[in-house]
Design a protein that fits this description.
alpha/beta; nine-stranded mixed β-sheet; nine-stranded parallel β-sheet; 11 helices; about 30% helix; about 25% strand; D-serine ammonia-lyase activity
Length: about 375
């Protein structure tokens, strides 16, 4: 692969990343929150590479969020610090979290129940260190977190605060409910609601005499269109924005021209009796995320709005026209097609290497970390 100079000559399927767009997306987010005076703590889960992390952190190698301990260790081993493991503390991983907490100057964990606190008590940190704990607040997203209106939320914060060897570092919320939005107005409404709930909870803590310095919310949609009140938060933690994808363009987070990631595929079969082409991109190169619900199926086929990626098996994709007869002469065997993925995080997960280019010329390859 090393000898290939242009993305058009890559063996397919291949994941290609437009470096200019990645840099533009990263700089846009950094500038947006610099203006608001809010710390950007970018999430690494979309790409899981060192090179992209360096771009997102502006070379600081500090202040990142991860979704797995594999990512946490990978970044720690490569000189990163101030890493927040944004996942409800798994009891099988307490020891690994302890080791990272002892080794780094700042390693943060997230809890949303008192049993997790008991686990931390059983494993005091060495070198006089304390566990840096963020409490996850569910601001009507309905995934992890203590429901914000539940008295248990304040009670848990109090317990964390009162526990020896543990510090309540902040309140963490994910506004994943922005993913149901269509357009800037709806995104801003959810961003406002999450911000208000989080800030009100911070006030409740203050009134109860509980000291916690930080508040953090985030999702790519809400951080792509922040509301002024977000300036009162300490941090935000979006991640997908560095690549963006078709889903984000439909939500209203970005324009299609901001999407930095593509999957290259080639035509491997003509089936006129079915009015279909086969391509060498199955779900192992794209993922099934999105469920084929786009008018164009599982992806957008760039430059061919008339085509639909109808279905995929492990290594095959079926392509047919949205209507009418397919002109097979337009798509000779071996000819390339470019797919814009529905969900960049899921698609990137499928690839062991990303081919990074500028205007079609390959300038780098990035290797993501994998596993848990």
């Amino acid at each position: 692969m090393a000898s290939v100079e242009f993305i058009k000559d890559l063996c397919t399927p291949a994941l290609v990343i437009d470096l200019d767009k990645v840099k533009r997306n990263a700089e846009g987010m950094r500038e947006r929150f610099q203006k608001l005076g809010v710390q950007l703590r970018p999430h690494m889960k979309t790409h899981k590479t060192l090179e992209c992390a360096d771009i997102m952190t502006g070379g600081s190698r500090r202040c990142i969020v991860v979704s797995t301990l594999a990512e946490a260790s990978f970044y720690a081993d490569n000189g990163y610090d101030d890493i927040l493991y944004a996942y409800p503390l798994p009891f099988d991983k307490v020891e690994r979290c302890a080791e990272l907490s002892e080794r780094l100057s700042l390693f943060h964990i997230v809890v949303d129940n008192r049993f997790a606190l008991q686990e931390l008590k059983k494993r005091p940190l060495k070198q006089g260190k304390v566990w840096k704990v963020w409490m996850k607040l569910d601001c009507d997203n309905g995934r992890a977190g203590v429901p914000h209106s539940d008295p248990a939320a304040l009670k848990l914060a109090q317990e964390v605060s009162d526990t020896a060897g543990v510090e309540l570092t902040g309140i963490y919320a994910h506004c994943g409910n922005t993913y149901a939005c269509q357009g800037e107005e709806q995104i801003k409404a959810v961003a406002q609601e999450t911000t208000t709930i989080t800030l009100q909870f911070m006030e409740k803590l203050k009134a109860a005499g509980i000291h916690t310095p930080k508040s953090s919310i985030g999702s790519t949609p809400s951080c792509s269109h922040p509301v002024p009140d977000m300036a009162m938060l300490s941090e935000v933690h979006p991640g997908n924005y560095v690549f963006y994808d078709v889903q984000q363009s439909l939500i209203g987070s970005c324009r299609l021209e901001d999407v930095a990631v593509r999957v290259l595929t080639r035509v491997i079969g003509h089936y006129p009796h079915r009015n279909q082409l086969l391509v060498d991109c199955g779900w192992t190169a794209l993922s099934h995320d999105g469920g084929g619900r786009l008018p164009t199926g599982y992806a957008i086929i760039e430059g061919h709005p008339e085509l639909k990626l109808l279905s995929m098996t492990q290594e095959h994709g079926r392509v047919e026209p949205i209507s009418g007869k397919l002109d097979f002469k337009q798509f000779p065997l071996g000819s390339p097609l470019t797919l814009m993925p529905y969900h960049a995080c899921a698609t990137a997960m499928m690839h062991p290497v990303y081919f990074v280019h500028s205007n079609g010329k390959i300038i780098d390859t990035w290797k993501p970390t994998r596993g848990w």
